[in-house]
Amino acid sequence: MELVTLAAVLVAAVAVIWAVRRDNSAPTAEPTLDGAALAQLIGAEVKAQMGDAATSALQANNEQFLTLA
Fold it and tell me: Rounded to an integer, what distance in angstroms lies between the CA atom of residue 57 and that of residue 63?
């Protein structure tokens, strides 16, 4: 009985040591995000959308001006 207990404790100790010392740099499914690159992408998208909004507002203003003239 003591031999089984000793074997169980030994297996548990080896499992703990293996878990602590194993390499945690395994590749993950999710890519790592670079904050600066993400900010540049968001900035470019906002700039493009603001350009589209400004262009459509200018066209609407021109159409309204031509209608009133």
Answer: 10
Q: What is the mean pLDDT of the chain?
A: 82
Rounded to whole angstroms, how far apart are CA atoms 49 and 51?
Answer: 5
Reduced to 3 states (helix: H, G, I; strand: E, B; else coil), residue 63 is helix
Torsion of CA 31, 37, 40, 42, to 10 degrees: 20
**Stated pTM of the model:** 0.43
| CA atoms of 52 and 46, how far apart (whole Å) | 10
Cα(8)–Cα(14) distance, integer angstroms:
10
